[in-house]
């Protein structure tokens, strides 16, 4: 099911903050081959708004028309000027039309001003932490990059918005898609690159990933990976399943198919050549696995993308 994110932009909003939220959602859609997320832009009155650097955005409408899964409030600079009774009343009305509310950068101030963070843990841009605590004693203020407390989300700034977006993708769709998004946006590499380089928080799982990514063209048995790493196959199976929610065999196959997808999009190599580079002796077997993973053949995927 597609989740709808509505971004409420005010004059002076941060381009970087907006991009760091939207681009990971866009990447998740691209990598999943599905519309996992949709987003629209709103302003308080439906009029165009300008970012702090002068980028003008023509919104889809006024905030009174916004309805969806999440409302993302983004005032950034000049947030105190926007914290007026009319806007705060409109935010309270909008809260009833959204399952979750998020305040990015200084958006937390507007949510708190509307009484929408009472009894919640929240953060704000760290320059405003002390003033925020004093102004809203009913909010449990913490100095974190972002906070997700039930149906309230707050984020400290533009760079942290990327961390928040990938955390939401992780919660919604699991660690593999979140890791793929991180790779795509942070270290895509050249079309000739051997494979995506994904990383886990578990040190052993990270070593397993490294071995797998170095042998995509000639896959090993899991017991051979275990021998190289000096542990048992059972240990690898247990740790990978616990960390990534997938068996090592399925993970290996997923990594090989991610490379196949990358080559299908970024090169003109034939299906047979792609199959060989991804450890498939039979192009038909790779095509069947590709279709099962991505819903279409490599050729069809290449044409669509």
Automatic annotation (TrEMBL):
The entry's keywords: DNA-binding, Transcription, Transcription regulation
Record's keyword annotation contains Phosphoprotein: no
HTH araC/xylS-type domain mapped to chain residues: 206-304
Any one GO MF annotation of this record: sequence-specific DNA binding
PROSITE patterns assigned: HTH_ARAC_FAMILY_2 (PS01124)
Xref: InterPro entries: Class_I_gatase-like, DJ-1/PfpI, Homeodomain-like_sf, HTH_AraC, INH-QAR, Tscrpt_reg_AraC-type_HTH
CDD domains per record: GATase1_AraC_ArgR_like
Protein name: Transcriptional regulator, AraC family with amidase-like domain
Domain of life: Bacteria
């Amino acid at each position: 099911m597609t989740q709808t994110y509505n971004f409420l932009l005010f004059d002076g909003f941060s381009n970087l903050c907006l991009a760091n939220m939207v681009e990971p959602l866009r990447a998740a859609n691209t990598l999943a081959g599905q519309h996992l997320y949709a987003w629209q832009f709103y302003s308080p009155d439906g009029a165009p708004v300008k970012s702090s650097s002068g980028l003008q955005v023509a919104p889809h409408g006024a905030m009174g028309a916004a309805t969806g899964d999440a409302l993302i409030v983004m005032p950034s600079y000049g947030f105190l000027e926007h914290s007026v009774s009319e806007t705060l009343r409109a935010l309270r009305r909008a809260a009833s039309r959204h399952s979750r509310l998020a305040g990015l950068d200084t958006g937390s101030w507007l949510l708190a001003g509307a009484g929408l963070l009472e009894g919640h843990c929240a953060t704000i841009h760290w320059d405003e932490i002390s003033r925020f605590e004093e102004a809203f004693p009913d909010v449990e203020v913490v100095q974190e990059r972002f906070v997700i407390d039930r149906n309230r989300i707050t984020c400290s700034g533009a760079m942290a918005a990327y961390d928040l977006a990938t955390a939401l993708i992780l919660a919604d769709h699991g660690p593999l898609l979140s890791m793929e998004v991180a790779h795509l946006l942070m270290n895509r590499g050249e079309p000739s690159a051997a494979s995506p380089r994904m990383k886990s928080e578990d040190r052993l799982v990270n070593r397993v990933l490294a071995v797998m990514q170095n042998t995509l063209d000639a896959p090993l048995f899991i017991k051979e990976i275990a021998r190289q790493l000096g542990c048992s196959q059972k240990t690898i199976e247990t740790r990978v399943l616990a960390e990534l929610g997938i068996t090592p065999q399925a993970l290996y196959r997923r990594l090989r198919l991610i490379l196949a997808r990358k080559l299908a999009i970024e090169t003109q190599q034939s299906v047979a050549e792609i199959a060989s580079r991804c450890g498939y002796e039979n192009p038909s077997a790779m095509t069947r696995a590709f279709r099962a993973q991505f819903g279409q053949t490599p050729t069809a995927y290449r044409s669509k993308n």
